[in-house]
Amino acid sequence: MTKRFEIITESDARTLELGSTVMLVAGGHITPLARDTLRERRITVVRDDEVSEQESALAPVMPVRKVAIGSDHTGIAMKRDLTANLRAKGITVHDLGTHDSASVDYPDVAARVARAVAVLEADAGIIIDGAGIGSAIAANKIDGVRAVMCPDETIARYSREHNGANVLCLGALLLTTDQAIAIVHVWMETAMREPRHIRRLAKIRALEQNRR
Questions:
Q1: What is the mean pLDDT of residues 78-99?
Q2: What is the pTM of this model?
Q3: Could you tell me which residues come within 8 angstroms of residue 208 by beta carbon, excluding any fewer than 6 positions away?
Q4: Are 99 and 79 in contact (CB under 8 A)?
Q5: Please, what are the domains in the chain?
Q6: In 89-121, which residue ranges form alpha helices assigned H by DSSP?
Q7: Roughly how many angstroms between the first and final C-alpha of the chain, as a whole number?
Q8: Prior bond to 154 cis, omega within 30?
Q9: Residues 94, 162, 185, 197: which is the catalytic one?
Q10: What is Dmax (Cα atoms) for the chain?
Q11: Residue 6, H or E segment
Q12: Are 170 and 128 in contact (CB under 8 A)?
C-alpha cells in the first residue's frame, strides 16, 4: 500500500525507500529541505486530489529488485550476458528460458515473462527475440502488462517515464550486448513521476477491462 503523508519532512524523505512512490493528502505540505532530498532519492510524490491510490499502484515498481527474463533461440547469448550483469548488481533474475539453441516460438516465451510480471512474481520483465517486436505484441495480450520494444536509451526512458512500461523487449539481431545493457539500466532506473502520466494508466486498464 502506498504511504500517505499530511506533511513530508527532511527526516521522512531520508527514510523513504529509494525510487518509491508516496501520496500527499489534499492540502498536505512538503518542507523545502524535503523537496531536495526527495528529488535526490528519486521519490515520486503524488497528491490524492490528483491521482487516486488505485491509480498510483499502476505505476511501475521502483526500485526494481526482481526481474523475469526470457528469450527465443536468437537471444540466448544476450540473455546470458544481461542476466550476469544484473545479478552482479544484486538484482534477482528469474531465467524463464529458452535454454538451448533449438527453435522456439517467441509468443510462448513472451507469455511466461509477461505473466510473471502481471502476477507480481517479478517487478519487471525483459524479453529478447530477433527484433523485439513480436514479443512486445505477444506480451501486451496479458492484462496488466505494458510491453515496449526499445531500440535505444531515449525510447527506454520515455517508455517508463511517460508510459509506465513494465516489460522491456529487445532485438538480439539489432543490438550489441553493450547497447542492450545500457538500455536495460536506463529503463530500470527511470521512474514514472508525473500524475498526468500515471492517470493515463488507469485508462489503459479500462481498455483491458472493456475487452473482457
A1: 97
A2: 0.80
A3: 143, 144
A4: no
A5: 3-59 (no CATH), 66-189 (3.40.1400.10)
A6: 106-118
A7: 27
A8: no
A9: 162
A10: 59
A11: strand 3-8
A12: yes
Q: Is 99 a catalytic residue?
A: no
pLDDT band of 55, cuts 50, 70, 90: confident
Query: Are the CB atoms for 139 and 111 separated by under 8 Å?
Result: yes
Q: pLDDT tens, 149-163?
A: 999 999 999 999 999
Judging by beta carbons within 10 Å of its beta carbon (0-12, 13-18, 19+), is residue 210 exposed, middle or buried? exposed
Q: Is 172 helix (H, G, I), strand (E, B) or coil?
A: coil
Single-letter code of the amino acid located at 54: Q
**Calpha distance 15→206 (Å, rounded):** 35
62-86 pLDDT, tens digit per residue, is 899 999 999 999 999 999 999 999 9
Among residues 161, 199, 163, the alpha carbon closest in space to that of 50 is found at 199
For residue 63, say if its preceding peptide bond is cis, omega within 30 degrees of 0. yes
Secondary structure of the chain: what % helix, strand, coil (to 5)? 45, 20, 35
Range from 15-24, 80-89, 156-165 carrying the lowest mean pLDDT: 15-24
Task: Give the other-Cβ count within 10 Å of 83's Cβ.
Answer: 18
